[in-house]
Design brief:
Oligomer: single chain
Largest sheet: 4 strands, antiparallel
CATH class: Mainly Alpha
Number of domains: 1
Order of helices and strands: HEHHEEHHEHHEEHHH
Strand order of the largest sheet: 2-3-5-6
Distance between the termini: 70 Å
Radius of gyration: 38 Å
CATH superfamily: Outer membrane efflux proteins (OEP)
Shape: elongated
Length: about 425
């Protein structure tokens, strides 16, 4: 018997381990790996984001409330004892009368269907809230993806800066060896190289942090992907502001008010229906112990709406309905203002990034090349060479910041219009 139990337990444990292993393999299979695109990051987050997964249960609960709201009121079973434990002829249970009755409340005015309508609209609101959370998640994933791409660009420029500092140190060392430059210049060049190497390590750490922040959106602390495949300096033309403003109507923050207006209308109808009282019907059997006879009894009851006609409830429902319209107008105004500000900022960020990369950076590289050549011939000082290097580094950082800001703002614009505005340019491969 013990052997049988042991074998059964071993079989169960083996099956559980196999199932856990299969689940782990399935989870690993859905984990983005290698060089990932924005589309892969978005897909992974939508499938596995822990907060979004938890939010979906709220929709299931709302659908259950629809079922409950459509239920009829339960009937009542009552037992009534009369004429016992008294005096005279009613002493003891000789004159006992027992009534067993069945009663049912009949709702009038369509209250049950109105309650169900309210639950259905509430479910629609939760669906819109879930969609808004999804859009928030997509915008957040896009921003974190941009952070990874920007960090990769910073590493590339940091590598370039280290190479420039190394070439400068080699050139100065040769001049010092030939007694054409003081030893102090070589020391300063070594300090510059050390700083460039420290910046390179800091850039690597920032990239690891950005990769981890991105993988957290699909529930992984340790990222399995190696890099983000995108061109940070690829820009696209935006639609006219009027066309983007028209798309505000699709924003779930706006469409939610349409469903909320339906909810307020249903609440008002229910409040008005409450004025019409419900009817209670009952039927039962009465037993007369003294004679042993039975008889049917029936009843009817209905409250009289003399004082309470739900005046306050109706007034509140009308106020809530008017409040919904006012909030819709305020929300549209606020979103349009935000859209206009984003539209202007996106244009400015794009112009700044384009100018820096297409004009300022090539000029800074040419200036550095000329200064290095002139320094080797003794035409420029080490301070001038160092200043030229720092100018190139500063311009490189500014170009990356401007390009990243452009894509972050574009992600915010996408969130407002519910349109995929960022995928086209970010999916472009690196040159």
């Amino acid at each position: 018997m013990k052997n049988l139990i042991a074998r059964a337990l071993g079989t169960c444990i083996a099956a559980w381990l196999a199932l856990a292993s299969a689940n782990a393999v399935a989870a690993d299979a859905s984990e983005p790996r290698g060089a990932i695109t924005l589309a892969q990051a978005l897909d992974a987050a939508l499938k596995s984001n822990p907060e979004l997964t938890a939010s979906r249960y709220e929709l299931t609960a709302a659908q259950a409330r629809i079922v409950q709201a459509g239920m009829r009121l339960n009937p009542e079973l009552s037992l009534e004892l009369e004429n016992f434990a008294g005096g005279g002829e009613a002493q003891g249970t000789d004159a006992l009368e027992t009534t067993l009755a069945f009663s049912q409340v009949v709702e009038l005015g369509g209250k049950r269907s109105l309650r169900r309508s309210i639950a259905e609209v509430d479910s629609d609101l939760i669906t819109l809230d879930l969609r808004a959370r999804q859009l928030d998640l997509l915008a957040d994933v896009t921003r974190r993806f941009i952070d990874v791409v920007a960090a990769q660009e910073r590493i590339r420029f940091a590598d370039e800066n280290v190479a420039i500092a190394q070439r400068t140190l080699d050139a100065i060392a040769a001049r010092v060896k030939a007694a054409r430059s003081p030893i102090a210049e070589e020391s300063r060049a070594r300090i510059t190289l050390t700083r460039a190497q420290i910046d390179r390590r800091q850039a690597t750490l920032a990239l690891e942090t950005a990769r981890s922040a991105l993988s957290l959106t699909w529930g992984r602390v340790d990222p399995q992907f190696t890099s983000a495949n995108a061109d940070l300096f690829a820009f696209q033309s935006l639609e006219p502001f009027e066309a983007l403003a028209a798309k505000i109507e699709r924003n779930p923050d706006i469409t939610r008010f349409a469903s909320e207006a339906r909810l307020r209308d249903a609440e008002l109808r229910l409040a008005q229906a409450q004025v019409r009282p419900n009817v209670t019907l009952s039927v039962g059997v009465r037993n007369f112990r003294e004679s042993g006879d039975n008889a049917l009894v029936a009843g009817f009851s209905m409250p009289l709406a003399v004082h309470d006609r739900n005046q306050g409830g109706i007034r509140e429902a009308r106020a809530r309905r008017a409040q919904s319209d006012a909030e819709l107008s305020a929300s549209k105004t606020r979103l349009l203002g935000t859209l206009y500000a984003l539209y202007r900022e996106i244009g400015a960020a794009r112009e700044r990034a384009t100018s820096l990369r297409a004009e300022a950076l090539p000029q800074a590289r040419d200036a550095l090349t000329q200064t290095q050549s002139g320094y080797e011939r003794g035409r420029f000082s080490f301070l001038e060479l160092l200043t030229t290097q720092q100018d190139l580094l500063a311009l490189s950082e500014a170009a990356i910041d401007a390009a990243a800001e452009y894509h972050r703002l574009l992600a915010e614009l996408e969130r407002l219009t519910s349109e995929p505005l960022t995928s086209q340019d970010l999916e472009a491969p690196l040159p």
